[in-house]
């Protein structure tokens, strides 16, 4: 390696962490489940545990759950979802030190699945007929889906560079008949597959939240053929937990 190559190499890693100890313990969570299982409640309890100040981008009335957490409410900036471009601008305003955005260390998208559907509706409204090769409005290869997928990818890249904790909430998607024909039986977060994959590959925690009569509210982080789940957080093993165990485990990870 000559001196010029070495100089280029050194420049390419400038500003990066000196060692693994310098990498921040950021949360990239993706929680999904049926309406009413407590996704917003769990998120609020996690943010209380890590003393976070969130920008809470919401798509529906589920944000009213936050009133159960008056201290968290004082630190929360509620923002009605407008577009993925809006989210990128929120991060930019924060990074450039603009008030009040620079005061927040977390972004919650509640719910990501509804936000994606809203963006799809807007793209379809702008171009209702689609290009000539459009086959059917329910086919995921439809070009409208690709437009939204691209916008979501750009947004996730900005979020990943932000240094904030990011929590995506989503409704549940059950396997379709096509899935069953292809022997893909796992339930997963709702939304087009390409959009779901964009978030899932960047998440370090994917949890399926549900309720059982005997045990109450549970969340599963163990991937199976039936359920989509994931954990890359060392304080959380691949298994099913009672929901009230999770805030402390995430606090332990973030503060380690």
Description of the structure:
- The strands form two sheets. Strands 1, 2, 3, 4, 5, 8, 9, 10 and 11 form a nine-stranded mixed sheet that branches. A two-stranded antiparallel sheet has the order 6-7.
- The longest helix is centred in the middle third of the chain and has 18 residues, at 143-160.
- The protein contains nine helices and eleven strands.
- A hairpin with a 3-residue loop joins strand 8 (205-212) and strand 9.
- The protein has helices spanning 3-12, 39-49, 70-74, 84-95, 112-126, 143-160, 177-181, 193-200, 246-255; strands at residues 28-32, 54-58, 77-80, 106-110, 165-170, 172-173, 188-189, 205-212, 216-220, 230-231, 240-242.
- 37% of the residues lie in helices and 18% in strands.
- It has one domain (25-255): 3-Layer(aba) Sandwich (Rossmann fold).
- It is α/β, with parallel strands linked by helices and 256 residues long.
- The chain is globular.
- Helix 4 (84-95) packs parallel to helix 6 (143-160), helix 5 packs across helix 6 and helix 6 (143-160) packs parallel to helix 8.
Query: What would the CATH topology be?
Result: Rossmann fold
| Helical proportion, percent range | 25-40%
In the predicted model, the low-confidence regions spanning at least 5 consecutive residues are 132-141
Span between termini = 38 Å
- Sum up the overall morphology in one term: globular
Number of separate helices: 9
How many runs of DSSP E, i.e. beta strands? 11
CATH superfamily: P-loop containing nucleotide triphosphate hydrolases
CATH architecture verdict = 3-Layer(aba) Sandwich
| Name of the CATH class | Alpha Beta
Structural class: alpha/beta
